[in-house]
Amino acid sequence: MEPDPATPSTPRRRLAVGAVTVAAALSLLAIPGTAHGLADLQSESATISGGVVDSNHAGYTGSGFVNYDNATGGYVEYAVTAAQAGPHALVFRYANGTTIDRPLAVTVDGATAGTVSFPGTGAWSTWRDVTTTVTLKAGANRIRATATTENGGPNADRISVNPSGPADTEAPTPPRNLRSTGKSATSVSLAWDASTDNVGVTGYVVHRDGAQAGTADGTSTTVSGLTAGTAYRFTVRARDAAGNLSPSSNEITATPGGSAPPGVPNPGAVTTLRSGTDVPWGVAFLPDGSALVTEREAFNVYRLTPSGRRTNVGKVPGAQNTNGEGGVLGIEVSPTFATDGYVFVYHTASGGNQVVRAKLSGDGLSGWTTILGGIPKNRYHNGGRLRFSPDGRYLFVSTGDAQNSSNAQNMNNNAGKILRINPDGSIPSDNPFPGKAIWSYGHRNVQGLDFDSKGRLWASEFGNSSQDEVNLIQRGGNHGWPACEGTSGSCGGTVAPKRTWSTSSASPSGLTIINDHVFVATTVGQRIYRMRINDSSNLVEQQVYFQGSYGRLRTVEVDHDGDIWLTTSTDKDGTTGNDRVLHVDIAYPQP
Ligand code: GCU
């Protein structure tokens, strides 16, 4: 064995400095090794520590080989670009002119990948292959081979790296249930259900309006830099280590902006936006901050600006009143209004109550289309609220029992229910009762609907003579009516309300949730209730506002600035002309 191990190689160390520099320069210039097709990586082009490049023994490939120092710890590190993740055959070409094994410890990106034997080859000019298996990730890997004995490593000519399994050509499954989980004025937060893959999902690609908008390691992300009031289309694809992309997830549309600031919503100053009006029943906000308001008895839909300017945009065709609670009731603006201009209205017609859709262009509604008809009607108990789910995918509709309490338990009609439909009126395939719009049942007359920050649906419900309710709606749930009113009667097996009031102190219509505070507008009670949803999903810290100040209240909605608009319902049973739309400043002190 030469040189004498007792005389460590001072000259080599000096040479090594230059060699490392050269090697580093070479590795910058060299095209990184690819793991396809028996790619070779020359040791002299790798990163060398504790070794020098020599060429004094014949038979090497490339321009030389690495002569490890005769000491532990020297290494050669190869930069390997793998086309696919998974097991790879790693072949070292080496010579060991001694009779003593010179094991090298192999790591991949610092992770131990085993120790490989390099027994004697008979002569320094006799080169042999030794093979081991390492697991690489797709893309860049650092394979380091470190001397483990005081003899150092063998003379190292090159390595070659080859995937040992078949190439991964199988794409991940598409991400499912893409949804919006929140938004700010300029951002939209997205979440989805994880994809699966035969090898493993390594990340997700988020697309906005067809172009890549970002990537995510996990199953959620926030896309920022958006413009408030503009509708954006989002899809997500999964990718695996080999770069295979899944088909796209479901597409959703989300419009940033229009959220209240964080904090506790405390009502403050009230101003009248409009007075002397027909019963203003539904209120929904357009991206520009104005509201669309429906008139129950006059059947008008008008735009009302925050400064109180009114512009009629249409009269609902075929609307009828009932000399009672029917007429033109709830209204919703499409979550994709910026691109489709759709407005949804719930109203009474000759064939029953129905949900219709029209397009607002400029100041005119046109193209009225019935998307869900035949909801039983009567003079009273017509329900009427519309609310889109937070992800914009489903329209929820509240109905009443049409003064026939058995309707509420009759799964063959839509009275006394909360309904869930697609924006075109079709039935979502994952509704709880196949082929039916019914989302929950056992309701007497629901006129308030909204979602909390966890995406759960809350609803206000008129009781008969004793108890009104606020319910946390259960998918497919029986909420009790008529056997159970509030918490009295035969309530076994039905969903209990989260809050009851005596009908004289409530008779609740509109419901809006701001920062997990539930606001309920009451008619007979002539007040607004505010309650916080606590961690146990209970309604706590009830506050009462405006009791008796503005008469009977129908609707409470939050605008894009976080203020609320109220409507009154002084007019009863077909009389008109005495009602108001009110604006309430909301302050948001931090909790
Ligand atoms: C000899 C041989 C070198 C080898 C060294 C060793 O000097 O010429 O190429 O690296 O022995 O034992 O490591």
Q: Largest beta sheet, briefly?
A: 6 strands, mixed
User: CATH-wise, what's the superfamily of the largest domain?
Assistant: TolB, C-terminal domain
* Broad shape: elongated
Q: What share of residues are in beta strands?
A: over 45%
Q: Overall pLDDT, averaged?
A: 90
Determine the structural class based on helices, strands and strand pairing. mainly beta
Count the DSSP helices: 2
> Can you identify the CATH class of the largest domain?
Mainly Beta
Bound ligand species:
alpha-D-glucopyranuronic acid
How far apart are the first and last residues' alpha carbons, in Å? Answer: 78 Å
Radius of gyration from the alpha-carbon trace, in angstroms: 36 Å
**Structurally, how many domains make up the residues?**
3
- The CATH topology annotation of the largest domain reads as Neuraminidase
Low-confidence runs of at least 5 consecutive residues: 1-38
> What percent of the residues sit in helical stretches (DSSP H or I)?
under 10%
Question: Can you walk me through this structure?
Answer:
With 591 residues, the protein is mainly beta. The N and C termini lie far apart (78 Å). 48% of the residues are buried. It contains 2 helices and 45 strands. The protein is elongated. The protein folds into 3 domains: 26-163, Galactose-binding domain-like (Jelly Rolls); 176-254, Immunoglobulins (Immunoglobulin-like); 268-587, Neuraminidase. Bound molecules: alpha-D-glucopyranuronic acid. Alpha-D-glucopyranuronic acid binds at residues 1-3, 54, 57, 67, 70, 124, 152, 155. Alpha-D-glucopyranuronic acid (GCU) binds next to loops.
